[in-house]
Design goal:
The structure holds two protein chains of two kinds. Chain A is built from two helices and 35 strands. The longest helix of chain A is centred in the N-terminal third of the chain and has 11 residues. Chain B is mainly beta. Chain B has a domain of 239 residues: Jelly Rolls. Chain B has four helices and 54 strands. In chain B, the strands form eleven sheets. In chain B, strands 1, 3, 4, 6, 11, 12, 13, 14, 15 and 17 form a ten-stranded mixed beta sheet that branches. Chain B has a seven-stranded antiparallel beta sheet with strand order 2-5-16-7-8-9-10, with no helix packed on it. In chain B, strands 42, 43, 44, 45, 46 and 47 form a six-stranded mixed beta sheet that branches. The chains are: A mainly beta, B mainly beta. The interface between A and B is large, with 50 and 69 residues.
Chain lengths: 501, 749
């Protein structure tokens, strides 16, 4: 029984599984790139910081072989996270991953053990299209995501408390805890009866995770046991190459590319209430698919160098911004800078292009390093300086960071730092002020290495050495004071500070 | 021989004979004769058990000697007080010899008396069987520092309700009485008192008889021997024997005055004679009574409290006090199972009394009251915190207020069982009910000041409230919250809090958290069980636990060691392999007792299946729903440890046990404890859902040495309960259920 003042926590818990079930807490990694804005920045996280990583203790906590080792394709999706669910088995922190063959697994992230697993679409038709499609059909996972910009809620789980204290009341006046009550009693009118809430659909009493399976069905699962919370809903043609499934305000969005299966390249929207599917055709690029602004507006980058703005739910185009450059290579990243929305993306020419939503013009950075990343990350330091981070360098051999500077109300990117040499770095994730990035390790091991870099300097704070087996197609996510590496051989690694169980 | 010629005398004698079987043929009873049921209260060699001024009292030749001299004169009468008990209804026999050198020498035997510390340490007030050297007063019934002469030598007298004293007749003249007394020699003195009738005999002859109907009379009190002020004198007493004639004397006088049995919360009834491992098979339902208390959420009746002998208008009674959540107190005759009185506290100050805060915050009374003795033997005060947060002090005998209700804490909170320690009422609160902070409280009865202290952790919800050590430190688990003492945050630990005697503030004096407190917080496996505190050799130890399902052994000198994280011992996990927060783990309260061999036992009730790795030498079948685990406290390798001894049979949600005379009483509550289901999520944690899925409680008697089932209530209990509890005294075990029924099981006539 979680008891008050954990009422707040309980309330949060109830909200999480009740009315708030559609709005995951800000610190959960609910979709590719962490949040609706694809920032890949986990903020207000309890234990991980540049300061704590300079001390010993950060280490591999557990690894779990999720995919069937007998299968040829075993790559996992980076986990979608749920930091707290009060389930029928107890309080749990869960990670959800998918492996090929529509294998969905929920993992207890404290213990590294499987909580439940399901396999979908055993009778799905055989794939067609390009040979590459065979490798790209890993299903997508997402949890409901709030489009609002995540709020910095104070670290350490935001459980700010007054310290313990004692007091003694006046004789005959009872405890001091009576005082606030007495103070508000005089002349206080009886509180008006609460107004009946506006009619709204009864929220589900449990959190959900959405799975887009290879057969194109969107499945709504109860996070507690993986059972169908609703019948599967047709969303995409089978065997599409889907990227960046995200569910915002009861609408699921995803982008398809490469023409895999019978799916045209497009942005797709599924209204979870009406089950109506809407598309906007276009050659969308970027590993994380569409990004969504705090007002629900959809932003996508295209292979013809456009940033397209779409209306929520209907996907009607609102605006198209021509970058003036070649194809974009990354999904957009959205962030707020001084009350204005900035949208950044990487182009194939190695430049980052930044759109000021007020000026509606692109700012293009000079070519400082080759940065044709398929995903960017952004974060802000304690001075409220925003940074962009991406894999960079010739043929991608480092992580680079840029500061977002406002000069005469015009944003620009100033070089920040370039990391140590990292072969083939992948898209980074940021936890507070620490940049986590994966790279291929130095020969002869060629193991995948997880690096932790100081967000302010790029200095390496820690690395995983040869802990992770030699595999590519790895991916990152983070939350709950742990960093997860999902690898191409179907193994999930969890790194963090140990906690005695 | 005193002739019994007057009818009034015959009447009174008949009364005495009827009431007091002892000297029924009172005319020739001997102090050294019938000794059945009499207990020597003077050992013949020392003044052990007696309290008096050593300048005047000594033991000499198997007699108590009180003597004054010219060098040690007395300015006022002094008394040698017997501290071994009180004299309510009794027969007393002794021999006395008073020196005749001082013809004015005076003495007497006090009974039903009280002390007057404001006058002097050894000054008494009350009834006296008078003795004097001149035998002018010997044989009379007198009242020291009170009404004076009540029944003079040879007199039969009555004191009316208004205090008027009237002679009813005579058993002889003063001269006749005087003739029976051996001057300067040993004389037999007998006093028989029962109810309002007092009879005095000297050397086997009735010398006076008093019928005292004065409403102000003392009904119980101390026994003492008098040494009178004045010229030097000497008085001697020997062969002093006392027999209890109270109707209630036929009952053991065990009490259960507070939840958990005592301030240390050991749940061990140490004064039981009827219930034993041999007699347990004969336990049966003695009575049950359904009360009119309306349940709130899942709460209904709180654990019963028992007083073995209460002075009521109708004579002494054994009374059971049961509290109903809807602001009700019930007094039940323990022998007959009938309601004696009911009191409902006014709760107009509560405001909204509708149920809308969920089952964790039911409103109403949530704290089991505590009963305290008063300076007057046989009179007790119930201390209860009503729904509106007010402290009530109620006369146990009749339910009347003995003090005005006093402000204590905010209304609609959720305090847990009250504890009484040195004139202060302790409790703690949880679940933030009423929107109030979770704090520990101490109400100082002398000053009316309330100290409070909050751990900034979770709620403190040890079922039987705080446990209090011999040093007056209250200990409680701090429930679900982070542990960060550097920031003054003490969740998921145990805190020791003590009242500052000067300011009455509560102050933190010690604290402990398990080394895995962070994990406990993350998984909601909080430390929340009421500890049990007990003496072990030269130390005072404490055991506590939480939902994680381990037992911690601590020393109250320093419960967590220097780092506040190191207990004396930590058991392995007993249960909760699945890390559940709702239907597994140790809930409620611990228990501890010592057997005849001096072995100290610790008992832990737990919910859910036994941990697959936890083993005990004696197990009694598969444990699926809960059980009681018993440990022996043993010294190993220079340290103390809790060694598993037995695991009970399966019980459907094993609740905190109580222990009596080698028998462990435990029960499965039958409550549905589900807080979440896959389909309903936390909506399952509603009274509606859980009541519907609850079954019925079963009470078990287990052999304390083996855990073997000796008896069970089977299907006799037809309802379940939520956070109720067992109470045991005088051969009876009490349990209340959700439907408002109090069950009394025991060894009946």
């Amino acid at each position: 029984m979680r008891a008050a003042p954990f009422t707040a926590v309980v309330t949060a818990g109830v909200a999480l599984v009740g009315a708030g079930a559609d709005n995951a807490r800000a610190q959960d990694w609910t979709t590719a790139g962490y949040d609706a804005q694809r920032s890949s920045w986990v903020r207000a996280e309890g234990k991980i910081s540049a300061a704590t990583l300079q001390r010993p203790g950060f280490q591999l906590l557990w690894k779990l072989e999720v995919a069937d080792p007998s299968t040829a394709e075993r790559a996992l999706t980076p986990p979608v996270l749920l930091d707290l669910v009060i389930g029928y088995r107890g309080f749990r922190a869960l990670a959800f991953v998918t492996a090929p063959s529509d294998h969905v697994v929920a993992i207890d992230t404290d213990l590294g053990r499987v909580e439940w697993e399901r396999q979908f679409a055993p009778g799905a038709p055989s794939p067609g299209g390009l040979p590459a499609c065979v490798r790209e059909m890993t299903p997508n996972l997402a949890r409901p995501t709030n489009a609002a910009l995540p709020i910095l809620i104070g670290g350490a789980g935001s459980r700010t408390r007054q310290p313990a204290r004692g007091a003694v009341g006046e004789p005959g006046e009872g405890a001091v805890t009576l005082a606030p009550l007495v103070a508000r009693r005089p002349e206080a009118p009886a509180p008006a009866p609460p107004r009946p809430p506006a009619p709204r659909p009864t929220p589900r009493p449990f959190p959900m995770v959405y799975v887009l399976s290879t057969d194109g069905m969107l499945r709504t699962l109860n996070v507690m046991n993986g059972a169908d919370a609703e019948p599967p809903v047709p969303f995409l043609p089978p065997h599409a190459n889907a990227r960046g499934l995200i569910v915002v305000d009861t609408v699921a969005y995803v982008a398809t590319s490469r023409g895999c299966g019978a799916a045209p390249n497009a942005v797709w929207a599924l209204d979870l209430g009406t089950h109506q599917v809407t598309t906007w055709p276009g050659r969308v690029v970027g590993a994380d698919g569409p990004a969504i602004g705090p007002d629900g507006t959809i932003y996508v980058t295209t292979s013809d160098g456009h940033l397209v703005v779409l209306e929520p739910r209907t996907l009607k185009p609102r605006a198209t911004y021509r970058s003036g450059g070649p194809a974009f290579s990354s999904s957009p990243v959205i962030f707020d800078r001084g009350g204005r929305l900035l949208i950044a993306a990487s182009s194939r020419d190695g430049r980052i292009r930044l759109l000021d939503s007020r000026r509606k013009t692109f700012v293009t950075m000079p070519l400082l390093s080759q940065t044709a990343a398929d995903a960017l990350a952004t974060w802000a330091d304690t001075d409220d300086t925003h940074w962009l981070v991406a894999s960079a360098g010739s043929r991608g051999s480092a992580i680079a960071a840029w500061k977002v500077i406002q000069q005469d109300s015009v944003p620009r990117l100033d070089p920040g730092w370039v990391s140590r040499h990292m072969p083939a770095p992948l898209a980074p994730a940021v936890v507070n002020d620490v940049i986590f990035a994966l790279s291929r390790g130095a020969p002869p091991s060629s193991a995948v290495v997880l690096h932790a870099l100081d967000g302010a300097t790029g200095n390496e704070l820690w690395n995983s050495g040869a802990t992770i087996a030699h595999v590519m197609r790895a991916g990152l996510s983070a939350g709950g004071s742990q960093v997860y590496v999902a690898t191409g051989d179907g193994t999930l690694y969890a790194f963090g500070f140990p906690m005695e169980h | 021989m005193i002739p019994n010629t007057r009818s009034s005398l015959a009447c009174c004698a008949a009364v005495v004979c009827a009431l007091a079987a002892a000297p029924a043929s009172a005319q020739q009873a001997s102090a050294g004769g019938d000794t059945a049921g009499f207990a020597a209260i003077f050992d013949g060699t020392t003044l052990q058990g007696w309290d008096g001024d050593p300048a005047f009292w000594r033991v000499e030749r198997a007699a108590i000697v009180g003597e004054t001299s010219a060098a040690t004169p007395l300015k006022e009468n002094t008394f040698l007080v017997w501290r071994g008990g009180t004299t309510r209804d009794f027969a007393l026999t002794l021999q006395y010899r008073i020196g005749t050198r001082n013809p004015a020498a005076n003495s007497g035997v006090q009974f039903r008396s009280s002390l007057l510390p404001e006058v002097g340490r050894w000054v008494m007030k009350g009834y006296q069987a008078d003795i004097d050297a001149a035998d002018t007063y010997t044989g009379q019934i007198y009242e020291e520092r009170g009404r004076g002469f009540l029944a003079r030598p040879g007199q039969v007298a009555r004191v009316a309700a208004d205090g008027q004293i009237r002679a009813l007749g005579s058993v002889g003249t003063p001269e006749m009485v005087k003739a029976f007394i051996k001057r300067g020699d040993w004389n037999d003195l007998q006093v028989v008192a029962r109810g309002n009738v007092i009879l005095e005999l000297v050397n086997g002859h009735v010398t006076s008889l008093l019928v005292d109907d004065d409403e102000q009379r003392s009904r119980d009190g101390l026994l003492g021997l008098q040494l009178h002020a004045g010229a030097p004198m000497k008085i001697e007493f020997r062969n002093i024997r006392l027999k209890d004639l109270s109707p209630a004397a036929t009952l053991p006088h065990a009490d259960w005055l507070t939840d958990g049995g005592n301030p240390q919360r050991t749940a061990w009834q140490g004064e039981e004679a009827l219930l034993s491992t041999r007699s347990a098979k004969d336990i049966r339902l003695l009575w049950k009574i359904t009360l009119d208390n309306a349940p709130r959420e899942m709460h209904s009746l709180l654990p019963a409290l028992v007083v073995g002998r209460v002075d009521t208008r109708d004579g002494p009674k054994e009374i059971v006090i049961v509290t109903g959540v809807s602001d009700n107190l019930y007094a039940i005759d323990a022998q007959r199972g009938v309601l004696l009185w009911k009191k409902r506290f006014a709760h107009s100050g509560v405001g909204d009394t509708t149920l809308h805060s969920g089952l964790m915050c039911p409103g109403g009374i949530t704290a089991t009251p505590v009963i305290g003795p008063t300076p007057v033997p046989g009179r007790y005060t119930i201390y209860a915190v009503s729904w509106d947060g007010t402290l009530h002090q109620v006369n146990l005998a009749d339910g009347e207020d003995v003090a005005p209700p006093a402000k204590f804490m905010p209304p609609n909170g959720k305090p847990y069982a009250l504890n009484l320690w040195k004139n202060a009422i302790y409790t703690h609160t949880a679940q933030g009910c009423g929107g109030h902070p979770n704090v520990a409280y101490a109400y100082d009865l002398a000053t009316g000041k309330v100290g409070s202290w909050g751990p900034a952790g979770g709620g403190m919800w040890g079922r039987t409230g705080p446990a209090i050590s011999s040093k007056g430190v209250m200990y409680t688990g701090t429930g679900d919250g982070p542990w960060d003492p550097e920031r003054g945050i003490y969740g998921n630990g145990i805190v020791g809090i003590q009242q500052n005697p000067t300011t009455q503030a509560l102050e933190l004096v010690d604290y402990f958290a398990p080394s895995n407190a962070e994990w406990l917080f993350k998984r909601d496996l909080d430390m929340q069980v009421t500890p049990a505190i007990f003496a072990y050799k030269t130390r005072e130890l404490m055991v506590s636990a939480g939902k994680e399902c381990r037992v911690y052994l601590m020393d109250t000198e320093s419960i967590g060691g220097d780092d506040h994280r190191t207990p004396l011992y930590r058991t392995p996990l007993l249960c909760n392999e699945g890390l559940n927060f709702a239907s597994a783990g140790i809930w409620g309260a611990m228990a501890s007792w010592a057997d005849a061999n001096g072995t100290r036992w610790v008992l832990a009730p737990f919910w859910g299946p036994k941990h697959s790795l936890f083993k005990a030498p004696l197990e009694h079948g598969e444990v699926r729903e809960g059980a009681i685990a018993a440990f022996k406290l043993e010294e190993r390798d220079g340290g103390l440890q809790l060694t598993p001894a037995w695991i009970s049979r399966d019980m459907n949600r094993a609740e905190p046990p109580v222990v009596v005379n080698g028998v462990v009483f435990g029960y499965g509550s039958g409550e549905n404890t589900t807080q979440a289901t896959p389909e309903l999520g936390l909506r399952a944690n509603s009274s509606e859902f859980r009541i519907k899925n609850s079954t019925h409680a079963v009470l078990y008697a287990l052999d304390g040495q083996t855990g073997e089932e000796l008896w069970s209530s089977g299907t006799q209990i037809t309802s379940w309960n939520h956070w109720a509890g067992l109470s045991v005294a005088n051969g009876r075990v009490y349990l209340g259920t959700f439907d408002g029924t109090v069950y009394c099981f025991g060894i009946g006539p």
